[in-house]
Each structure stands twice: as C-alpha cells, then as structure tokens.
Design brief:
By secondary structure, the protein is an alpha+beta fold. The protein contains 20 helices and ten strands. Strand 1 and strand 2 form a beta hairpin. Helix 5 packs parallel to helix 8, helix 9 runs antiparallel to helix 10 and helix 14 runs antiparallel to helix 15. It is elongated, with a radius of gyration of 40 Å. The chain starts with a helix and ends with a strand. About 2% of the residues have low confidence.
Length: 642
Amino acid sequence: MTRTAMLGPAIGAVTFGLVVGGFALGIHVGNVHNGLIAVSFTAVGLYVVRRRPANREGWLFVITGVAHAGMFAGREYGLHPGPLPGASWVGWLGVWPLPIVLMFTCFTLMCFPTGRLPSPGWRPVVGVLAAIGVVLAAVSALWPVEYARTGLVAPHPLDVPGADEATTFYSVARPVAYLLFQLVAVGCVIARLRRTHGDENRQLRWFVFAVAATALVMVGGLLVWRSPLPGVLSVPIAAVVAGAAILKYRLYDIDPVINRTLVFGAMAFAVSLGYVTVVLGFGHLVEGRGTLLSLIATGIVAVAFEPVRRRAQQLADRLVYGYRATPYEALARLSAHLAAPAERLLGGVCTTIADGVGAREVVLWTGSREALRAVSAWPASALSSETRTLTDLSAVPVVHDGRFLGAVTVRKAPGDALSAAEKQLVGDLAAQAGLILELRATAQRLVVAGDATRRRLERNLHDGVQQRLVAVALELGGVVRLAEAVGSTELTARAEAARAQLLEATAELRETARGLHPAVLTQDGLEAALGHLADRSAVPVRATVSVGHRLSPEIEATAYYVVSEGLTNVAKHTGATLVRLRAELTDVGLALEIADDGCGGAAVRPGSGLEGLGDRLATLDARLVIDSDVSGTTLRTVIPCA
C-alpha cells in the first residue's frame, strides 16, 4: 500500500472531523468561508493526488485545505458562548496562523497548475512574502490584534506589553500585506498565462475564469443583498474547476464558456440598468403610474435588447477570440493579398482564412489526393514537411474547373467548431485559392515552356547559324591567303576586315545564345554552369558549390538565373571587391546564397530583375530573401527539390 493511499483517508478524516465539529459548535457567517475552503480544497487535492500522484499542486491544495480546517475549527471553538474549556488557546490557534495560511494560499495559486513556480526568478518574491507572513503571524500570536475583528469570546491567552503599538502596526501592515499577497499571485498567474501554451494555458484559463466568476458573485451579493454569503458559498467552485482543469477530465476549451458568460453578464447588466433607469429615473415625474412605467420600461428594454445583445456579442468575441474579420473584410483582404508579390500569395490565402474564422492554424496543401504537400501555413510554424493523403486530413478540397488542386485544413480551438457561415466562408476562400493555384500552375508551365524554347533556340543557333558563320569565316580566311599569294594588297585588306567583322558577329551570336540558355548548363550540369559564371564575373567570386547530381531542368535553370542576376547586379551597382557564392543541396532543397561587401541598397522594384527572380522562384514554391545595408547585400533562397 503506497504512502499516498495511506495518508489520503487519514487526511480526509481529520479535515472532515474538524469541519463537522466546527459546524456542530455553531455557524458564524464570518467563518463559513474557512470551512468551505477546507472541504473543497482538501477534497479536490486528495482526488487529484489519487489520480495523479506526481502532481505537486494536488498536495498544495491538500495543505491549504487542512490549514483552513484547523483555523475554522479553532475559531468556532473560540466563538462558542460559554466559553468552552481551553477556548483561549484553541481560539488562539484559529487566529494567529492566518497571515501564513493566506501567504501559502497565494503560493498555491502561483504554482497552479504544475505545483511549481513559473521560473526561478519568483523564488525571492515568495521568500519576501513568507517573511511578511511570518512577521504578521508573530504579531498576531503575541498580541490580540485580530480579536476585535473575529469576535472571539475567549480572551487572548498571552499578556505581553505593547498591545497598543502592536495593534497600530498591525492595522496598517495587514491590509497592505494582504493586498500585496493578492497582487503578486495575480501577477504571477498572468505572467504564466502569457508564456504558456497548449494544455497548461487552457488549465490556467479555466482557473482564472472560475476565480473571476466567484469574485463577480461576491460583488453581486454585496450589491444586491448586501451580504458576502453568495460569494462565500461559491468559493468551492474555484477549487472544483481547478481540479477538473488539472485532470483534464472531459475538459473542453474554456473560450466558448467565457464568451457566453460575458454576453450573459453584459445583457443582465444592461437589462437591469435600463429597467431601473426608466422606473426610478422617471418615477418622480409621474406619480401613481407604477404599472405604466413598468410597461414603458419593459418596452424600451425589449426594443433595445437585440442591438445591445449584438454589440455585447461582438465585444465578447473580440475579448475572447481577438479580432475576427467579417466575410466581406476577409474577401477584401484577399483582394489586397492578390496585389502582393507572387511569393506571398499563398500565405495571404492562409492569413485571410485565419482572420475570417478565428482559426488557430490554417494549412494549404497542393498535389494529388494521394500525395498532398503543405506549401503555405498560418502561422508559419504549422508548415509540415510530411506528405499526406486527402483521407488523412479533415480538409476542404480546393477545386478549379472540376480539377482537384489541393486542400485547406482549418484548426480552431477545441470545442469551437466551424459554424455554417464559417464553412461557407472557408469554401469561398478555398475557391479563390484554387484560382491562385491554377494561375501558379500556369506560370510554372510557362516557365518550363520558356526554358524549353530557349534551349531549342540556343541549340539551333549553336548547331545551325553559328556553324555556318564559322564556315564562312574559314572561307574568308582562304580568300585572304589567296589574295596574299597573288599580291593583291587591297583585296587582302578588305577580305581580312570582312573576316574580322564576321568573327566578331559570331562571338556576339555566341553570347546571345548563351544568354538564351547556357549550353554548359544543359551539357555539364549546375555545378559546372555556376563555376563558369564565377570565372566570368567582373568581381572576384569565392564559390562553394555542392550539388552532387543533376536536378530537374527548371530548377537548374532557375538557380542559374538567380546567380547570374545576382553577379550582374554586384558588378553594375555595388562597387564590391568580393562575392561569396554558396550553392548546396540540403534536406529541404537547393540553398543558394550570393553575398557581397558592396554599398547595399538592393530592393525589389517594379520591373526590376529581382522582381522577375522573385516571380520565377514563386512558381517553384521558393521565396527570394534580400538583406541589404551599408555593409553589403545578401540574396538567399531555398528551392524545394521534392
């Protein structure tokens, strides 16, 4: 039998006995909360420890509950008329530990839900709070500084000089310390809430919601019934909700609950305020017309209810989910994204869908139904390198002209499903994504066709026109030698000039053919072609090229033109003295980097070569990244090779 299994029933029995014994002695409203906290925190803590023995927060709940049980029983004993035998010492035990117990309760809240502080930086803060609690507890133990407030029948068991000074100090220090305890606990919970994610974040949000709801009940009781009893009776709810959050038993996301609670609370407040304003505000003007005023107030509230509810819902949505675009705003944003550079189009689609439905994650997949690959995502961290099938994904198909082009997956918070209107919006945006994917595929086909045409022109020029011109140049060389043999100086000069012009034209034609499509790229591959570019560069190039094998023609051609354009820009605009070229085949694709030590100033401008490179890279799911400042310019891209 484990230690937990043995301690649990014993602790539960002690707590139950103390609380039941205290209630048997009498019920005092000012002390009821201690009994409720004792039962709820101990019961929840023991249940958590039983289900999750390694959870330290469960034990903190147990200690908090047992401490309150001891204070509850001691105070009830000291409050009983008589007084009972030994009431001075027993009542004393129920009063002086209060500062330490409150400090420990705050520590329990600070450690929720893991039982540990968010970071080591909070340990000195806890040390200061503990010191304050010990000092206040010592003052309360030596002098009757709490007796006037608690109303104990039996007197303080100690008679230590300096009671007046101690009371003055305690009356000032106690509210400041208790407020400090609460502020630190709230600050710690907020800090943890901001830095946590996933399950721990949802656990915290449940707990914060429960505590806030309890506080609202307390305030409502004070305002309506002028009694803290409703708030006191609701205290166990916070402990129960905290236990459920720790165990995550049938726990759904808190966001929809908070949303509906905010709307309900706002509407209750608005209806009450409207009714009271009409009845009381105009009551003094119309005497004896109570029924009429009630009817008027009811009518005004009925007319204003729906507009107020709509505004309250919008405010609750904004507070809980953040800003969420309307369908019209979503489509308008998509239109704006369509005007952006090509490499940001797909990201714009995902962002627009996320804004429109309040999604936590949106992923756009392309390919066939049996092999889908993620090409864009919001947020970017959701982008996956895995290949999936459509049956694996709960996705909205992307179809254009009856052809399957891909799919869109949308993930919202647990318990917050897509509404009918949101499904319609996702379908409409998926249709727009289909158009973008079709345009992208068309652009890819145009690039491939253009490269094929360039290769064909280069081959025709090299094998046809260029060879014929070389043959003519050889014939002119024979004419020059014949003219020299017969002694015709003028004929020799003119034939030599014609031959020189023909060779110059041949060289220009060779350069033109190389610009259309480099023969070295087709014949020898990317490594040789990039080495050729580095050798011909006007600025010295330090090249590191590691490709290893031939890639697809469109990838090799795109990489070649990226490096060619980069080296040309360096020579024309930067005044650089050295260029570093890196081309490496990695797990994610072909990584290219061209860096110079020039004056910087590179940017994508309409009609520029860099804009053309960006558009060409976008057809291959790649993006051109430009870092340019006074220390130089770096062009980077990674071209997927899957």
